[in-house]
Amino acid sequence: MHQDIRFCTADDGVKLAYAATGSGPPLVMASTWLTHLEHQWRSLAWRPWLDAFSEFTVLRHDSRGCGLSDRDTEKLSFENWVNDLACVVDAAGLDRFPILATCWGGPVAIEYAARYPERVSHLVLYGTYARGRFQVGQPEVTRKARLMLELTRQGWGQQNDAFMQVWSSTFQPGGTMDYLRSWAEQMRLATTAEKAVRLLEIGWSVDVRKAARKLKCPVLVMHAERDCAVPIAEGRLLASLIRDCRFVQFDSQNHMPLLDEPEWPQLIAEIQSFLAKPNAATSMRSVLPLDELTPRERAVLEAIADGLDNSEIASALGLSEKTVRNHITRVFDKIQVQHRYLAIVRARDAGLGTRLGAR
Q: How far apart are CA 7 and CA 22, in angstroms?
């Protein structure tokens, strides 16, 4: 696998970095609090998620203020996070797709799915919530949240700091020192301490309970039984708000599951089974303007759908590779895609492709 990193611009001018990995039908991963596309590629916490869904084209992005997206912007708000998700999926050329959201990304995905029900086919919510810590209404929860904010300011990215010990015991208590070092590295690369605090304050102030009640797509809610970062009571509350929802509880203490714990393959199997149901992994702009293609351009698109590379297409059609490249440029322009993997998915969804079989 490799990842293809691109950039798009939000309506307010903020540059957003997004990446596509794997192959196959689309799967959008909503951005979480702490992101860095390049570091996630080697992160002990995040790389297993990418490997587990390599049969999909996984789309994810760095939140504004984090990673490869604009870091200096002060335009931070929950509304902007939802708009940024909309911006990224549009830039990637997606039409209808499932969303996988964890933790902080859950409320963003819920709000997006409620606003754009025609775009989201299925929604997977792991270890997340409908109301942030500041919306729970319990003084003790608020006090602990404010303490965490201060620890964040003081110990950001320092693997030997007490904050990292608190962090690891909260998010991955079963993790080794290697996990702690991986988190510390991601913190240093992702953003500054002050920006991290501001993002947490926004994330812990959200309340998407109304949006959750409006969801129309099938929803899978999963939660670790002894999750300290997001108590399981919040997961149950979220599931109770959603009409068409399945709730799965896992016997684990880790907010972010570990690759070597037995619950990890169970969790992935649940998600894959859910996404395998009819209409779960749907197409990207499945209605193609085939009548705008010349016979030669359609033949080239058919060959792309069959998985042929440029040299194989040239040999099959009796053309030079340069001519094939020129045809591909025109085809991609007409069907409005930027990447080959998008062309393959859209073409197969439209019924093209014979050697590998249309989807």
A: 18
Tens-digit pLDDT profile for residues 133-164:
999 999 999 999 998 888 888 877 676 666 66
Using DSSP, state whether 207 is helix, strand or coil: strand
What lies within 8 Å, CB to CB, of 74 at 6+ separation is: none
Helices (H), ranges, 287-336: 295-305, 310-317, 321-335
Residues 6 or more apart whose Cβ sits within 8 Å of residue 174: 252, 253, 254, 258, 261
With contact defined as beta carbons under 8 Å apart, do 116 and 263 qualify?
no
Measure the N-to-C terminal CA separation of the chain; round to a whole number of Å. 22
Model's pTM, two decimal places?
0.76
Question: What pLDDT sits at residue 358?
Answer: 32
Q: Residue 39 has which token pair?
A: 């570091």
Is 138 exposed, middle or buried, given 0-12, 13-18 or 19+ CB atoms closer than 10 A?
A: exposed
Closest residue by Cα to residue 26 from 114, 91, 107: 91
- Is residue 106 classed as helix, strand or coil in its secondary structure? helix
What phi and psi values does residue 305 have, to the nearest 5 degrees? -65, -30
Question: Residue 325 and residue 340: Cα distance in Å, rounded?
Answer: 12
Identify which has the larger pLDDT, 13 or 308.
13
From residue 143, alpha-carbon distances to 33, 138, 147 in Å are 20, 9, 6
Give pLDDT, residue 183.
79
Distance CA 250, CA 232 (A): 10
pLDDT: which is higher, 266 or 69:
69
Give the Å distances, CA to CA, from 288 to 31, 196, 343.
29, 42, 10
